Amino acid sequence: MGARRIAVISAGLSNPSSTRMLADKLAAATVAQLAAREIDAEIDVIELRDLAHDITNNLLTGFAPQALETALNTVYSADALIAVTPIFSTSYSGLFKSFIDVLDREGITGKPVLLGANAGTPRHSLAIDYAIRPLFAYLHAVPVSTGVFAASGDWGGTGDDVAPLGKRVEKGARELADAIASRDAATNADPFDPANYLGEGRSFGHLLGGLAGE
Fold it and tell me: SS3 for 168?
């Protein structure tokens, strides 16, 4: 069986960013959990800040520039997703939501997702469950039970002593690995062939028709 492919969506705005740090931790932990199950994994990281202009153009025109199309196809053809956003004003960032908005509505149906978020204070930790999880549930993805939130103190050694970040990362990664292991591997067909993610009987014409009606 071929390696499982995990698409990592990071919505951090700075470089480096704590959002990307959390995304990398979740990805590494998931790869380790899969390795313990004798399953190989490949990681594809999508930095949304590098696609910000393309995402805006797609929202305005309905057409994805090449770099964004490649990122979307990476998401559609992955076996699972890790999605991490900073929290602004008690919810996901505008850049993160804009990327979700350009996804095909059936593109991640049934796909396991590990959710992550970060902010300066633990007061925003519930944002994963009241804001981000419903977003993926609406798209019929399957978020695992544990969402991983990191506050600034988690990086500086003053975080939660009862459930430190490392343990939360491990728990979320274990749940995602279990979800991946229980599913058949995604097809190894060309991930850039629209037929592999649009679904049976669907086409770009179908999508364009849908856009025309919005």
Answer: helix
Number of domains in the chain: 1
pTM: 0.84
Asked if residues 13 and 88 have their Cβ atoms less than 8 Å apart, the reply is: no
Q: Which CATH number does the domain housing residue 184 bear?
A: 3.40.50.360
Using DSSP bridges, classify how beta strands 91-92 and 41-47 pair: parallel, antiparallel or unpaired: unpaired
Pairing of strands 80-88, 4-10: parallel
Q: Is the peptide bond before 16 cis (omega within 30 degrees of 0)?
A: yes
Beta pairing partners, 185 = none
11-33 average pLDDT score: 95
Statement: residue 185 has pLDDT above 90: no
Query: For position 99, what pLDDT does the model report?
Result: 98
**Direct distance between the N- and C-terminal alpha carbons of the chain, in angstroms, rounded to an integer:** 41
Residue 127 tokens, joined: 């944002």
pLDDT at 187: 54
For residues 72 and 40, what is the distance between their CA atoms, to the nearest angstrom? Answer: 23
Range of the domain at 41: 4-212
